[in-house]
Amino acid sequence: MIVAIMLFIIVIGSLVFNFLSPWWFTEIASNWGGIDFAVFVTFWICGVAFVLIGLFMVYTTWKYRRREGQTAVYEPENKRLEWILTILTTIGVVGMLAPGLLVWDDYVNVPPQAREVEIVGQQWSWSYRLPGEDGILGTVDAKLISVDNPFGLDPEDPDGQDDILIEREALHLPIDRPVKALLRSKDVLHDFYVPQFRAKMDLVPGMITYMWFTPTRVGTYEVLCAELCGIGHHTMRGTVVVDTQEDYDTWLDGQQTYAQISTRPQGDPIAGQATYAVCAACHGPAGEGLVALNAPKLSGQDEWYLRHQILAYKQGLRGVHEEDTYGKEMAPMVATLFDAATTENVIAYIRSLPDDPAPVTIDGNADRGANLYSGCTVCHGSDGGGSHGTFAPRLAGMTDWYLARQLQNFRAGIRGSHPMDNLGKQMGLMSKQLGDDDAINDVVAYINTMSTRMTQTAMRQTIDDRGETDGG
Ligand SMILES: [Cu+2]
């Protein structure tokens, strides 16, 4: 009796949950309505089968419950029943498979007018490449990938010169124009997924996979990595913006080609010194950071990170949250860096400043911190030195009160909550691992032990170098 009641509650509960749950498809923004249809058909067929079988079990457990003097009958064969079940199951399975096969046929046959876009996945970010005016993507080779050539483009290939490179920024697409996405991975399996487009596809290292879709609704959509195995894929967020043709053309005009990026002017530290005078008021004359002005140490920070943060402030991705008191002080300052050359010059000047480890000000349990930091090494490095590959900045030897405050801000969504700030969002998700302010202080205390280790390693290297020279 109790079992029958429980089964009944499970059946009714599942039905009620299905119709009342807030988790449902996002509003569709592509041509793949057929995928929704295939999912609906599967849902209905499975749903009806589930309810019928569930209710049948309720009926039989109640009807044939144990009663005094009653025995079961053994009936191994029933031709009629077997036929009925076989036919019903066949109809159900065909009903579920047929729409899927029809949609799949469409999915793998790309319309000839579709325009190519390359999507590159790496731990843990998305980048994109568009063919330039010639409409041809230049050749790439994984062996050519470097800090200055993240896509591995062949510098000798004329087709690649006008390719448009979008590194970790939003991809824009014009509405109602079919897109053929060519997918490649630099490291492990990834899976490109924009829920509103319905389409998704794996990225497999060593091969180029593809899928196609036509964006049908203007808007800003989040890119997810739907790869489950491995670490950190859930933090791998990106942005796709579907524009009207007009907005798309404006955006495209502002993008840089491979040729433009590879001839980017080198920063001139001497020219940058004058610009830095403004920054020195808060960040200190040697970029050492001034706690009284809440401005962090900049010296010793990698140039790609400085460049990215300056850009983030310029684009309004950082320093805009209403509770971001200190970020809001910094944000207007980037106006003094009015063009690319000025920015490159000031970065070059900051890079020329002496890199002394910042004083230790945070108290915490470094042993506990070491444990907490184990999840951070994949991006920031076990020595806290940062990594261009993951775009995670150097932490060791930097101003510790600033690191602690950034972790608090990430956790509270004061930093990294802008929908277009994909790297900030990623760090925001990671900061949730640090439960409370004690955990933050502990992990920063551990990072502080690295600064001494880094200096020791650096010193040892200098001694080694000297030893080598001495030895001839
Ligand atoms: Cu991934």
Descriptive report:
The protein has 472 residues and is of the alpha+beta class. The protein folds into four domains: 2-64 and 82-108, no CATH class; 115-262, Immunoglobulin-like, CATH 2.60.40; 265-356, Cytochrome c-like domain (Cytochrome Bc1 Complex, Chain D, domain 2); 357-472, Cytochrome c-like domain (Cytochrome Bc1 Complex, Chain D, domain 2, Orthogonal Bundle). Helix content is 44%, strand content 12%. Strands 3-2-1-5-8 form a five-stranded mixed sheet, with no helix packed on it. The protein binds copper (II) ion. Copper (II) ion (CU) is lined by residues 121, 190, 225, 227, 233, 236.
CATH topology call of the largest domain: Immunoglobulin-like
Order of helices and strands, N to C? HHHEEEEEEEEEEHHHHHHHHHHH
The total domain count is 4
Find the structural class using helix and strand composition. alpha+beta
CATH architecture verdict of the largest domain: Sandwich
Q: What profile does the largest beta sheet have?
A: 5 strands, mixed
Strand order of the largest sheet: 3-2-1-5-8
Mean pLDDT: 90
The CATH homologous superfamily name of the largest domain equals Cupredoxins -  blue copper proteins
Strand content: 5-15%
Runs in which pLDDT lies below 50 for 5 or more consecutive residues are 462-472
| Overall body shape | globular
Ends apart, CA distance between termini: 91 Å
Secondary structure: helix percent: 40-55%
Question: How many helix segments?
Answer: 14
